[in-house]
């Protein structure tokens, strides 16, 4: 068992590295890490990678998400049993999510305000950004359909929680309504005595069966992450790190590193009394899957498997913290959104005062909560933050505003940053589960 876990980790790592190398070779056959445009290059190879990575691997993971969320939340809630305890765990979990996300957004703000990557952007780059935005039909559509402003962020959140039709929500793959329904359903089961216990036991068995499927699908992770990375790097190329946008990327990556390697390990050490290195090691397959899939939701099956099987987190705590965390606890996204918005303001020569920066931190946290755990969700909800900033700027002389088309500057590199912010998102969920597990055991 232990040997096969090691083999799998080595294979996943090899898949990630090979994906980057093959992707870069497709992007530039001479393997030169310079900016080059290969938008239409190798459509057959790109198609094959998309099919293997997105259609098959992500498809299989996604197939498991909704049944896994429903059963794990019900198992979590029914094993807590008592209402008061449920409330205590719920409050502690939400508090953990909010505090860590707010810290992440603040780290992002401090970095971007000091590094000032946006000031390096030239007028030519701004107009290329505008063209990129004009050509990005999907991004434009998502932004238009998305929520607007601070009120929009709240409405977006609440509107996402209560399902009109639970089956419709499940069929649409919407996690929050399914979680909401499962919590209520689990609570009711605990009040029904023997009958309720029987149903809970049956749902526990369904959960175990789905986890068995997860263990099978996990073996496809090396090929899946290889195909996904090759697909991403072949389209974007590693040269982006050396471009003007490179400074912005470096700012985001530095922030993610501070949060992921210092802040969250400190939380793990102080509040869970666990060795963060050992815990990260136990969670390694989930963290690497997050890099490959760009999706906390698609990674959820692997996160639950690592937390319960390798790191000894109880099914109760995992069922409580991980499904909810995969859709609302996004430290990496909050940090990224704060940096991206201030970067765009800098690129357009707009100065933000302290009040507006605080507003950015608050809205970035809310927007990250509202972002779904899917690729590039953070890019879309970031527009909420841009609009809130513009609302605040409207009262200033000359009413400067960040054009929405400015998003075009960062669309091209979003997928690469998404890998790392998703990894931090999943790491934040895992640390939360470990903390709540200890909190629950010592209570
Ligand atoms: N891809 C991220 C996630 O699934 C969300 C984002 O776009 O920031 O966690």
What does it look like?
The protein is mostly helical and 443 residues long. The chain has one domain: Proton glutamate symport protein (Orthogonal Bundle), CATH 1.10.3860. 79% of the residues lie in helices and 0% in strands. The chain is built from 20 helices and no strands. Helix 3 runs parallel beside helix 16 and helix 16 (331-347) crosses helix 17. The longest helix has 38 residues, at 43-80. The radius of gyration is 22 Å and the shape is globular. The relative contact order is 0.18. The structure holds aspartic acid. Aspartic acid is lined by residues 294-296, 330, 333, 371, 373-378, 418, 421-422, 425.
Helical content, roughly?
over 70%
Order of helices and strands: HHHHHHHHHHHHHHHHHHHH
Range of strand content = under 5%
Alpha-beta classification: mainly alpha
CATH topology: Proton glutamate symport protein
Task: Provide the CATH superfamily.
Answer: Sodium:dicarboxylate symporter
Shape: globular
Biggest sheet record: none
Average pLDDT value? 87
Q: What is the CATH architecture term?
A: Orthogonal Bundle
Give the distance, in angstroms, between the N- and C-terminal Cα atoms: 33 Å
Instruction: State the CATH class.
Output: Mainly Alpha
* Radius of gyration over C-alpha positions, nearest whole angstrom: 22 Å
Residue stretches low in confidence (pLDDT < 50, at least 5 long) are: none
Annotation, overall tally of beta strands: 0
Tell me the domain tally: 1
């Amino acid at each position: 068992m232990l040997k096969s876990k090691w083999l799998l980790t080595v294979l996943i790592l090899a898949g990630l590295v090979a994906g980057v190398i093959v992707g870069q070779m497709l992007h530039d056959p001479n393997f030169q890490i310079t900016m080059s445009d290969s938008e239409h290059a190798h459509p057959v190879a790109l198609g094959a990678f998309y099919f293997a990575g997105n259609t098959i691997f992500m498809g299989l993971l996604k197939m498991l998400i909704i049944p896994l969320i429903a059963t794990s939340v019900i198992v979590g809630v029914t094993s807590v049993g008592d209402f008061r305890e449920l409330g205590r765990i719920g409050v502690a979990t939400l508090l953990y999510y909010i505090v860590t996300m707010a810290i992440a957004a603040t780290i992002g703000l401090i970095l971007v305000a000091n590094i000032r990557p946006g000031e390096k952007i030239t007028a030519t780059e701004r107009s290329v950004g505008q063209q990129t935005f004009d050509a990005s039909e999907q991004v434009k559509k998502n932004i238009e359909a998305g929520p607007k402003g601070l009120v929009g962020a709240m409405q977006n959140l609440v509107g996402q929680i209560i399902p009109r039709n639970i089956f419709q929500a499940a069929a649409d793959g919407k996690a929050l309504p399914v979680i909401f329904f499962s919590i209520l359903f689990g609570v009711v089961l605990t009040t029904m005595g023997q009958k309720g216990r029987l149903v809970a036991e049956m749902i526990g068995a369904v959960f175990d069966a789905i986890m068995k499927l997860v263990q099978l699908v996990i073996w496809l992770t090396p090929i899946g992450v290889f195909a996904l990375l090759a697909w991403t790097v072949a389209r974007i190329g590693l040269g982006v790190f050396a471009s003007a946008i490179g400074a912005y990327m470096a700012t985001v990556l530095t922030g993610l590193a501070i949060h992921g390697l210092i802040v969250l390990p400190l939380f793990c050490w102080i509040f869970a009394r666990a060795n963060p290195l050992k815990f990260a090691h136990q969670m390694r397959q989930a963290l690497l899957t997050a890099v490959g899939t760009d999706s906390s939701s698609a990674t959820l099956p692997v996160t639950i498997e690592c937390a319960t099987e390798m790191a000894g987190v109880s099914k109760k705590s995992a069922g409580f913290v991980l499904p909810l965390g995969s859709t609302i606890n996004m430290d990496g996204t909050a940090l990224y959104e704060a940096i991206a918005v201030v970067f765009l303001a800098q690129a357009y020569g707009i100065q933000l005062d302290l009040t507006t920066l605080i507003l950015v931190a608050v809205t970035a946290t809310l927007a990250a909560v509202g972002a779904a755990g899917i690729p590039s969700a953070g890019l879309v909800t970031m527009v909420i933050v841009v609009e809130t900033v513009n609302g605040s700027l409207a009262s200033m002389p000359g009413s400067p505003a960040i054009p929405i088309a400015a998003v075009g500057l960062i669309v091209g590199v979003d997928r690469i940053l998404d890998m790392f912010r998703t990894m931090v998102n999943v790491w934040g969920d895992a640390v939360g589960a470990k903390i709540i597990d200890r909190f629950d055991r010592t209570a």
